[in-house]
Amino acid sequence: MSGILHKMRTALEMIKWEHSIFALPFALTAMLLAAHGLPSARTVGWILVAMVAARSAAMAFNRWADADLDAANPRTRSRAIPAGLLTRQFVLGFTCVAALIFIVAAGELNFYTLCLSPVALAILLGYSYMKRFTRWSHLVLGLSLGLAPSAAWIAVRGSLDPRILVLTAAVTLWVGGFDVLYACQDYEHDRTAGLHSLPQAAGIPAAFWAARLMHLAMLALLVWFGWLFHFRVIGWLGIAAVGALLAYEHSLVSPRDLRRLNAAFFTMNGVIAMVFLCFVAADLWLPR
Questions:
Q1: Averages of pLDDT over each 10 residues, the chain, 288 residues
Q2: What 3-state class would DSSP assign to 167?
Q3: SS3 149
């Protein structure tokens, strides 16, 4: 029993489950807007289960699919599978269990989320192979997280409002932009391994400009989103805060200095997502 618990702890560390905070606040934002406040505790609970399970399945599958590539990359060879801490069979089993939990959670929400759950899984798992074929894999990762707001809306309403697709597009570009920055640290490895990325295809300086443009487009989409949902002053302040945090994130790294990339990637993006959720929630709940 202790051996299984140890493997589970290692698996959770491997997938960095705490980083579910990247997409989760945007899903909760859509949930609050769809419910005009707060849906039932049951709906909130199953949305949380579905979100964490989906991301866990995607991350574990990525580690399984990339095990050989990770072993050849100095930055990633200490990950659980290359380091021998977990077997590929265990990680694949973990992926299947997480995917099953996601499907069960989707089924508990409504018929439409259940029917769409295989489509979501195909995108989430398919991302792991995109960098073998296209330099635009960053946007596929972005879409994997960008699905969260639309999925949460469907979970609450049982239908899709086209307005929520604007938030899906914004999250897609937000994630795609910071994944472009993150990929800069694997520039040499990607060239050697024949993998595709914007930094590998266009060079690190051009990749930085691409990330900046993606994040500027994300802000433009958030402004459109705020207009569509009739944000009040506090909602607009939230968008302004996101813009300021993105600017600070970009100030932490440069094409010649990637040392603070983890701070920009992990810490700041978690803060950005939570700040947006808090301001939108306040916009909804404070007296008008």
A1: 65 61 88 94 96 92 89 83 86 94 97 96 93 91 94 96 97 94 86 87 93 97 97 96 93 82 74 94 86
A2: helix
A3: helix
Q: How many CB atoms lie within 10 A of CB 36?
A: 9
Q: Which DSSP state fits 16?
A: T
CA torsion, ordered 275, 249, 16, 89, to nearest 10 deg: 130
CA distances to 25, 207, 212 from 247, rounded to whole Å, are 20, 16, 9
Please state the pTM of the whole predicted model: 0.93
Q: Do 196 and 133 contact (CB within 8 A), yes or no?
A: yes
For the chain, the domains span 2-285
Half-sphere exposure for 213 (CA within 13 Å, toward CB): 6
Angle at 214 between CA 251 and CA 229, to 5 degrees: 105
Residue 73 makes CB contacts below 8 A (sequence gap 6+) with 186, 189, 193
Class of domain 2-285: mainly alpha
> Any idea which residue has 């580690």 for tokens?
63
